[in-house]
Specification:
By secondary structure, the protein is of the alpha/beta class. The chain has ten helices and 13 strands.
Length: 307
């Protein structure tokens, strides 16, 4: 594969535009192509960045080396599998898919074709900068709040797959144990699906995690509290405020790290480095994204059971 990787983006919406600009600006890559069912929207995104617009996937795949899947979430599985079948490494915006079957098919096809799969759980970049992945002991309790105002984006999936899945991935990344039970309650509102939800997850080693999400809140709120035997870590992801009582040398100035200032760029760059063979893996693998999806679907089931 050439040193300069030709990036292609499926989906010319808000997230697709972010990815297109990363391919156009990161060293070692260019934006080559954008695919969207709306040809005019694809052209409006691609052409100013030096790329071409496509309305046909086969022609699109022929013009690229790597693919970002940024189409609506319900199409992630279909588009990811098509890209892998065409022999292209993929970066899939979260969630990896909306069904566990599709996620497992993505893993299997990627393994069969020896292709890199990354998923866009960008918050891991922040945790890495803070130093939480190097904590000397497992967490006892995690409490996450992720609220946002009403938006017309990502309404094809529930708030669990839209917002909560970020924090589910972080909890799974912090804990060496497996989730064993999930309970939840939710509110259906403007989208016709779950637009607010709370969940409590218990892990095999006794670790518990509580998640509170809403996409109908009056203001944006993103906080997390992680309790350890040694103390607590509290993070406000909006203001970047930080409190650490553990005594561990975590970085209170994590917000100043270049990767944190551009979490998407850092995540995409880790994907490109893995594709080139310059890194052993992307920031978030298909297997890790599948674990987060599995837990999210279990929580959705718990919401349905609660009515």
């Amino acid at each position: 594969m050439s040193q300069i990787l030709r990036g292609g983006v499926i989906g010319a919406g808000v997230f697709g535009a972010h990815h297109a600009r990363k391919y156009a600006s990161l060293p070692g890559s260019v934006l080559s192509a954008v695919y969207d069912v709306d040809a005019q929207r694809a052209a409006a995104l691609a052409m100013p960045l030096g790329g071409r617009a496509f309305g046909d996937l086969a022609s699109f795949f022929a013009a690229v080396d790597v693919v970002t899947v940024a189409s609506p979430a319900v199409l992630h599985g279909e588009h990811a599998l098509a890209a892998l079948a065409a022999g292209k490494p993929i970066y899939v915006e979260k969630p990896l898919a909306v069904s566990l079957d599709d996620a497992e098919r993505i893993q299997a096809l990627a393994a069969q074709r020896d292709l890199v799969v990354a998923c866009g759980h960008q918050e891991r970049v922040l945790f890495r900068a803070i130093g939480l992945f190097d904590a000397p002991e497992p967490p006892l309790r995690l409490e996450a709040v992720r609220h946002g105002p009403v938006s017309d984006r990502s309404l094809d999936v529930s708030v669990v797959l839209d917002l909560m899945i970020h924090d589910l991935d972080l909890a799974l990344a912090l804990s060496p144990s497996e989730a064993v039970t999930a309970e939840g309650e939710g509110v259906r509102d403007y989208s016709g699906g779950w637009d607010a939800a709370r969940a409590e997850v218990t892990f095999a080693d006794g670790f518990t995690a509580a998640f509170d999400v809403s996409r109908m809140a009056p203001e944006r709120k993103r906080t997390m509290r992680v309790v350890y035997a040694a103390g607590e870590v509290e993070i406000d992801f909006v203001s970047r405020a930080f409190r650490n009582t553990t005594g561990w040398p975590l970085d209170p100035d994590f917000a100043e790290a270049p990767a944190v200032k551009d979490t998407l760029g850092a995540s995409v760059e880790s994907f490109l480095n893995a594709v080139r063979g310059d890194a052993p893996r992307p920031e978030v693998t298909a297997a890790e994204a599948t674990r987060a999806l599995d837990l999210a679907l279990a929580i959705e089931q718990a919401l349905e059971e609660q009515g």
